[in-house]
């Protein structure tokens, strides 16, 4: 069974938003810990900061998944992408520990708002016998951009005197994912259980 045009366009939009947002988030990864230590944050605290993001995800992923079933997945996906596009700007403006801590918390929240609803939305676009394929395709976007993003970030770091401008680029890249998703998916707030096309 093949996807209909509407379902294919929606899935491609979710795949693209996944790829673009992960790409933007991954750009600062090669130098983020160095940047944070240059702000005067001790290296052990930097390690703990990364765990803050993971802790937030552990706490909110299930409630957000339940919320997306009730409120609709698209609006939570868009909110997640908006938050993720703001995270690099917090790093850009950072001068100490407070903003990076908030950035890590927002990063965990943004990821949690986007991924569970996106996976649910994408899986409903495919027939039930092809849900595994849908998830494989969905996560392919994340995997490929996770490879490319840090490479681009490391390359950009060679051509900027400081790391701060690269955070602006990361934010701008992530921001592109919002209109991609918004223009090519339907509001499912009244019917979150979209069915796949034939």
Brief sketch in words of this structure:
Helices cover 78% and strands 0% of the residues. It is mostly helical and 198 residues long. α3 packs antiparallel against α4 and α4 (73-93) packs antiparallel against α7 (164-184).
What best-fitting shape do the alpha-carbon axes yield?
A: globular
Helix content: over 70%
CATH architecture: Up-down Bundle
Order of helices and strands: HHHHHHH
Give the structural class.
mainly alpha
β-sheet strand percentage: under 5%
Count of folded domains: 1
CATH class: Mainly Alpha
Largest sheet: none
Average of the residue pLDDT scores: 89
Distance between the termini: 6 Å
CATH homology group: MFS general substrate transporter like domains
